[in-house]
Amino acid sequence: MLTLGLVLVALGALLHVWIFVLESLLWTAPVARRTFGGTPEQARATAEMAWNQGFYNLFLAVVAGVGVALVATGDRSAGVALVLAGAGSMVLAGVVLVARTPSRLRSGLTQAALPALGLVALAVALLG
């Protein structure tokens, strides 16, 4: 279960790296508009906000990824703390998105599902 949890959290972190790319590097490109919606004018008007938001997603991915690496190499205390902080924040961000905008349920589940499942598997492995 430990390995499964680490893999799921790592996949969640990779998804958040992709979200960073979309929000911070490709925000005005067609691929980001297809993913998030909006017009080219809206994308240009919100580019600064998206740039900043993308970095939040990158930082969450880095925290979770470093935590996964630490657990995998034997430093469970620091690793689990970082995994909980990074993946837990990913899950809570998905909850906040859906709570604020219920029509974004799919987006909220997309960003929260992998880290949530990873945290459950880690909890079973570490507490079981």
From TrEMBL:
Q: From the UniProt record, list the coiled-coil ranges.
A: none
Q: Which UniProt keywords apply?
A: Membrane, Transmembrane, Transmembrane helix
Q: Where are the transmembrane segments?
A: 6-27, 54-72, 78-99, 108-127
Keyword Phosphoprotein set for record:
no
Protein name according to UniProt: Membrane protein
